[in-house]
Structures
1.
Amino acid sequence: MCLIRKLWSDLDFRDFVEIDLNAYPGLKINSIEDKNKFLENITKVHKENPYVKFYGAFNEDFMVGGMRLHDFKMNLLSHKIPVGGLGSVAVDLLHKKEKVAKEIVTYFIQHYKNLGASMVILYPFRPDFYKKMGFGFGTSMNQYKIKPGNLPKGTSKNNICFIKEEEASLLLDCYTRVFKKTNGLIEKYEPEFLGKLRNPKLKAIAYKKNNVVQGYFFFEFKSSEDGNFLLNDMVISELIFENTSALSELMTFLNSQSDQIRYIILNLQDENFRFLLDDPRNGSDNMFTPVYHESSIQGTGIMYRVINTKGLFKELKDHNFNDVTCTLKLTIKDNFLSDNNGSLIIKFEEGKATLSNKNDFDVEVTLDVADFSSLITCSVSFTSLYKYGKAVISNKTYVNTINKIFSTDEKPICLSQF
């Protein structure tokens, strides 16, 4: 068993950096100068950001692993709930396959359960590892690779501008308005936008009208793989827009880059973005089964885990589960958290859910906690889980009723990296 505690000394942070950089060589931090800068950045975050803390796992006096914990607020079905986030899970190379990572994740889950959170989230280094620990898949990411001229050209880009560091609050205001009405988004604060605007590699383009930002994206240039300095792509991140006017002008701006930019690369949790395009092909010329043109590549990332099912339904007491009236016995299989394993009776009356002590119910549904976590966030439909044998229901005539209960217009979106 490891002792897991918050980092506090300079030695703690130096040891953490060594473990972290060995675990993530893709960060390509190799020089002493870069390593010191990395150390300076994380200690600054630890001291100045009250929502982020670093922890180490110790075997006697030696650090054998570490992690970063985030105190988030997430929009779940239009309700702001506390959520724990896990990042930088790292294990010393000398202590691999000693279940250090499992102990770290166990501590993380219990930490937020003790704080009263009902859900935790993370980005997996290995999805299968976390799936076994009860984490369910979130919305997939689609990467679109589009020639600028294939993006729609509107009638104007008069309201498009670069955003400067002193305008960070305008981006925050725009994001916050979208956050309040978007399932899955995590609340952000101004320092996050300031950090991006101070990054020399990142640039921010916005649709700004009457000094109000109604849409924006960050981008960076990516050089051609063959070293041709005249061939560059634009990689778009965090595309946000509040209305079609903002979207139109942002797309018109990107369309106008065709003389300098080879491809616009957009990473979006939206499989329907292709309907905006006349030609959604990604330039690979790949075709399969038998006449389907490759238009995007897809990846799985963000994962959700319910750690207190009863607590989550209490947090969602004001949510309308689509006006359904039904009494559901929900049986959750959770081999990792014993007090989250078992059944509860949920009475839905005209969409409002309350927990019941009576054992009377219309239908029983049995799910693994990982699949329930995906279902309650609306990352997947109940009909899909049932179709693929991931959900058991006592009465098949209730399949569509249960599907309606756990449905919303859009899958959850997460634009926060941690």
2.
Amino acid sequence: MSKLSTKVCSPSVERLKAEAQRLFANRGIDGVTVRDIAKAAGQKNAAAVGYHFGSKEALIRALIVDGAKIIDARRNNLLDALEESTGPNSISQIVDILIYPSVNLAAPGETDTYNRFLRMLTMSHSDLFEDALEGRWNSGYQRCLKHLRGLMPSKSRTIQNQRFIFLGSYLGGVLSARETRLDDTSRAHSTWNDKSTLAHFAATVTCMLEMEC
């Protein structure tokens, strides 16, 4: 699977992006200044963000798209393979495609922060998130929802829509919490480090979608 580091970019720009995303993930979009980002990235010039990106908002948009492109490509590749093999045949197959492409996004040696960044962003600037995607970088997610509708024929459109709202919040919340715990080196987090945890999470998502009212 692709990593965020595969995009060719200058080391200084990549460091600005990585530190900005980390700060946004920990402190929220409005709690971070361009000066904070430049300092964290080791840039002596506080105008580094403006020089490389034009503005703080432009940097945020770049971060959104960088991660979204990778997740979307991963999902679409998995969906293509599944459809070629006459699938999907179960909700759990689609749930796996919703979850696993969204983890392990960071470059080697870096800590994952993308899900936390998105969580903080969408709590206060959801319009910016949607606008940055331009309707282009969430096609895999939309394909997943389309397949889920076909796999949930006993549910009314209203119930399906409600479950999908729960789905989005549940995915974002748990994946964000996972990143937070894995980034905490002050103590061991046996649950989040357990390889079975994501599989158990996927099982609970599947149950939520399948359950009868």
3.
Amino acid sequence: MSSGQGSRPVEGSVLFTNGDTRYEFIQDLGTGRHGELLLVVRPRTPAGAQAQVLLKCLALPALASSSEKYQRTRARLEEEVRLARYLRHPGIARVHGLFEMGHGLCVAVESVEGLSLNTLLAIAQTRGRYFSDAFVLYVAAQVAEALAYAHARTDEAGIPLGIVNRDINPDRIRLEPGGGVKLTDFGVAFSRLAGRLNTTLPRPQGEVMYAAPEALLGAVVDARADLFSLGLTLLEFSTGRHLYDPADLRIEELEARLSKEEREQVLAASVASMVTELPPSAEDAIWCAMSYRSEDVERAAAGLSVPLRDILHTLLRRNPAERFATAAELEAVLRTALARFGAYGGEEAVREVQLALVESGERLAELELPGGEGGISLPLGINLGGPDAIPTRDATPEPRPDVARFVKRNPDEVTTQPSSE
């Protein structure tokens, strides 16, 4: 592996071996938000090529093993892998192991095919129409199911692990080609796992624009913080609006909404955000998180169905005690609301995405598909203008060339799943 300064590996080259498994380079996805190099690789065993895997690689300088930063980085990655032993759910991307190679450390995780909610939001805005409430409720219910599983996990002695994802946002939720929904990352999750690395300073661990108010204020968070982050994600995906981005309000107006005690809390949190080196957007997020009101949620959710609006109102309560008590409770409410729309599942969700791709037409060429996403295509041989076709404003007999960017490069390739530890 390159240290990050030299040339990238060529396609097909072997990055490293582990036992009788070779890991062959496929694609460089660039740099993650923590400075890690993201590589798509294919494990190859004596039985043949396996399913693609994503490597999160941290390049380390020579003699780094003697540094405190190296030890903390290694401990964090090892904790991620150990915690993953308890996260074996179809709605959560699998972590396969930690490898030491060349100039760095790599965590191998499942390479999830499909499109993130962030990409789907961009597609919806490109075509000029958001996805249906049924689509939103379906995706939300699948995410809530995965969170309910994670939040309730215990260790071998039956002691609750207290897992909190801390990074629920549109980039971390992906719709797969078969209609499944997956959380792709628990890399910054909190847990009570024995031997875990203690956080040095209280701060949001994920994207600050989707952090719960208590996380932004440096308070202790629990599973209900994930539910708030999911609420922000769903609101933005449904409407394009974000509570932490009040375009028509100035900081002075937000400040006027706060009591003296609340202003002091915000100022203290803003100072802490600079000490912990949070991005500049953190300060605005802190002000907005403390100053938004129920009417702001109602205004942002205008136009959505009443059940979905009610769910968002409960998710986006500033006080955690006023939100849903658990992700399991949220899932039950979501599935009840979804049932009002009739039979709607993964197949219907994929068809909505297919329709959105067709309706976006040539405007899709303006979108840049993030690395590692794709795989959702129109059914082969479908007659978009036929009586059983997807209803569309602009039907064509074959998928448009620009839609092909979202299609699997080799749809006939069948691979086996990588072996789990």
4.
Amino acid sequence: MEHIDGEIAAPPRLPAGEDRISALSSDLLIHILLKLRDAAAAARTSRLSRHWRRLWALLPELYFHPATGSQGICASLESHEAPVLRRLAVEVIDAVPESLAAWLLIAAPCLSGDLQLINEVGQNQTEDDAAEGAPLELPCFENATAIRLDLGYLALALPPLGVFAGLADLFLACVDLRGPCVLGDVVSSPRCPALRKLTVHGPRGLANFSNHSDSLLEMELKNLHPDDALHLGNFTIRSESLLQIQLIDLPGMQQLTVFAPALRVLNVVYCFVHRLTYNQPVANISAPQLTSLGWNEAYDPSSTQFGNMENLKWLGTYHFLVYGHDHHRLQNSFCLRLIWRFELIRSLRLMLVYLLDITNKQYLMEDITWLPDITCLSLDVQPRGHSFGPSVFHVLRICTGVRKLIFTLTGASSHGETQTACPSGCVCDQPPNWKTQELVLNCLQEVIVHELRGTEHEAALIKRLHDWATVLEKMTIAFHRSVPESKAKEFFQMLQSFSRPEIHMKVPRFA
């Protein structure tokens, strides 16, 4: 703008009817509309100019929020003119299957990219309400590359026919699976030949009795009521293409079978350990290329077969109770049996958990007599206010060759309890030799601490780590989000007071 007598001149007025935005290319205008991430808002821009009238119908990505409604989604999809629909993202609240089925049928032949459907359960509806009635029948999306369904336990029937030829990523959360087609059949190679990543989180109705060995007569002989069928199930995956599988909280899974020659990553979390105990959980995993295994489950080599895992580099196990009774040793054996299966492994994740009340409990750490030869150790500790120095010391003196230590304080459990200090005279600081006994970690070069809360127990351990790690080069400290900035800075300054000059200490929060 020009300056006139020291003042800023007003911008020149456009000639009547001139619209510089509409003068932009259609490609650029479509790019602007995509930034709205709201198909309804993009459609409303047609009122701005005649040139904008049909631009929204050319969007390669469509986002619908709950206010749009099923009819609006159907109308938009029927009017869509883009040569390729590469993303369809829909959010709904307390949806019923009929309202979703209408637009899913329209979208199935059009989508050549990602489908995301999230159904939130409102305040006036429960998860059981969502699962009532006829299920949502999912059509076959032959050209979709990714499908993400989080249905708030809405009943879902998978398509019995058709091939998801382009599907590379499938995510299912909070779905109530209904027959006749079972999940294992759909995700295996004949139906999903290009599937690379599979995530299943908290489904219902996983049980598959079409190929389960127990008939109703056999169930009667085992004194099982037919209703218990919902708690039994086989999940079988046979895939030539899968690279990653993540299974979290699968109620009803009694047997897991995976044949995946290309699989690299397998994580199975809380799918067996809290289930009915009339049969031993069974798993048969054939994945010779597996490099990462997270098995947060019961493990018994007589019923859990992993086959050849000579390429495994990372292992995560079920948690280990630091204090407990004799019967807790069986639970700890889930962790130890799997760890002791390996003599050499690059990275190990070990979870140490303290009970809230450890009075009159046995110290169980002595059961860990050896660990594989590892270079990276991830220690997740849930101390519940107790001193965890002795347990960490016990682990580190067994694996003195570790080069990198990742230490995470998981705080309170997920059952609503709060983090509190242990009572006076608690036995958690026993045995006390960890404070005085020498330990040489002459390979440890890097320490990363997550979720630090600034307690005395944490300070005591970090100080000892500085003493033990004679070649330590780098320490990164990340505080828990609940720690005030003033307290975090004060704690960090205290740590710097005993840190050696050659150690680079970093706090990402203040970086």
